[in-house]
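User: Assemble these into one structure.

Assistant: Restating your components, then the assembled model:
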Amino acid sequence: MSWFWQFTNSSIGKKLTMAFTGILLIIFLIIHLAGNLSLYGGEKAFNSYAGTLEIVKPLIRIIEILLALIFILHIFNGIRVWWENKKSKPIDYAINAKSKNSTLFSRTMIHTGVVVFIFLIIHLVTFWYPYNAGGGELNLYQLVSGRFSDPIYGWFYIVAMLLLGFHLNHGFQSAFQTMGWNHKKYFSLIQLIGTIYATLIAIGFASLPIYFLYFHGR
Amino acid sequence: MNNNLNLKLKVWRQSNPKAVGAFVDYNVSVSPDASFLEMLDELNNELEKNNQEPVVFESDCREGICGTCGMVINGEPHGPLRKIATCQLHMRNFKDGQTIWVEPFRAKAFPIIKDLAVDRSAFDKIIQAGGYISVNTGSAQDANALPISKDIASDAFDSAACIGCGACVATCKNGSAMLFVSAKVTQFALLPQGQPERQQRAEAMVAKMDELGFGSCSNTYACEAECPKGISVRNIAKLNHEYLSAKCKSTNVEA
């Protein structure tokens, strides 16, 4: 198996790990957002969606374990790549014209990633843990709408989703490039789809606290 | 002489690889028709006249094909213009009174030798690891015996246009050599002559690149923007695919 570890620890192997886990997380976000949008249907719609997931709980648990593994791989590997890359470039230029040759999104993946990671932990503590500790008895809609109506939590959520959008805007096309799928004919389309996807995910998630903060019940 | 440009240079001076370097200010008056290297030549003539140590920089062909010259000018390898080497950069691209920062290529794998000269022999070591084809000696076979389509030949030529100057490593925030290695791997992977050693080549060159302390690619594409030969990052995608497929298919289980 030495060839396999050599592969996963190589520069390209590490990038492939980022790309592969990244694509799985991209798919997960679509499903997560689709479920969350049922909040717009009101208390009954959202709680019945949560109740439906309750019926297939064993399956959800398996998916949760897989998701945790994917997240840990993506986060651990991302921080590792950033740390090792810093060592490959010990001294930066006195004058660096970065903005002339690369996008802000591509240069700030570690920063947006760390914010999303911190968000993820807070997100699990505020929603996932109380719900699962409550044994399914908890009124999830009350919990979510309560949090989203809090300006501090709401705005933290909005900012985190904006930065998630930045992360996805680079990450989407970057995953395709790393997989080797950069073709003259299709790559500009992939970049466009990535930007549309990132925008929709950011707006989709951020719209929920905005709705509860400024429009719900008014 | 009247339309000379008066410029303020801030040049990185470092007496040896271990020494602590610093920027030194020089004021120069130079013709707008001079190249950047000619401007440095004139500066060095002045310094020598005054019994001062000239600025060490590398150059050879001075027509943009050898890849020897290379320095970071105002934060960009080979300066602000696209698809040219430092030797092809002319002073008319700067404004009178402008301050120009001149720094050596910076990367862990490219240690500074002196002033603006860096040791790029890491690239040679990567080439020695697999950037070649093994051919038996003897008379060359008939050229028409190896049909290659015009499109493939052109793509291979585009990859082969890499002059190994190291600007990709210099501009990459990760100090990654992916654009260089990918150009060399792609050039051979596209052509029939490269097929026999295709898998070993991808595995060996990437392993050598990692060993020499180059960073990982994070797809910022700064390398493509700064490359004097316009090598496309599609080469990197190709290398990623070549490497993955080599790792899956090759019978090499040792590494």
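Chain A has a mean pLDDT of 95.
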